Amino acid sequence: xKRERILGFPYDNLLSDEALSRIEHxxxxxxxxxxxxxxxxxxxxxxxNKMLRIFLEEADLIIPTGKNLLWAAKxxxxxxxxxxxxxxxxxxxxxxxxxxxxxxxxFGGKGQTIDRAYINxxxxxxxxxxxxxxxxNYKKVDQxxxxxxxxxxxxxxxxxxxxSPQEEVxxxxxxxxxxxxxxxxxxxxxxxxxxxxxKRSSYGKNWNIDKVPAxxxxxxxxxxxxxxxxxxILSVFLERIFWKS
Length: 245
Fold this sequence. Notes:
alpha/beta; two-stranded antiparallel ribbon; globular; 6-stranded parallel beta sheet; 10 helices
């Protein structure tokens, strides 16, 4: 399927159900596949970083997210079929793993974040088969053993939340060692699932990720995203002018 592009960067224009179907199809082979959420900070970083540009070009599924990319796609007359909320979509992926009898591995977050996220997610999806979990801020001396443990677990779905570009670098370096079939890069969503985000939504006793508005999703580059927005908007205007020409 031909991909759309914003400022030269690819994305897949799909409904969430279509994206889920594509991921289910990818699971049918023995290869490793990457799923990326294209946010404004990631796109702007990729403009200056060759490794990120290549990573995006080679990704199997790229889902644009955030109001800036939603606006840009519409302004460039390539409107998104659906504005997919990453926090909800990732949870649907986990539910999909249950339906297909697959396992998952949770990797990322700081301190006890991954443990709290695990507790909340398994409450929401009781049959979620988690073959392993590990925090993202580990000591370098432990890395080899961590990677070996992940490889031994051979996860069907590997959810990594280290923030960009750390998670892309980590996958580039270790993809061949972790034996994961579907690798999903989720930025700071483990903090959302753990209840670390306290904005306009509550993540306490009545935790329900379906009710989390998209603007409350935590990204590791929220300040940078705000600073880069004017440059991004200007670039989109220029693309519209030259594209029409």
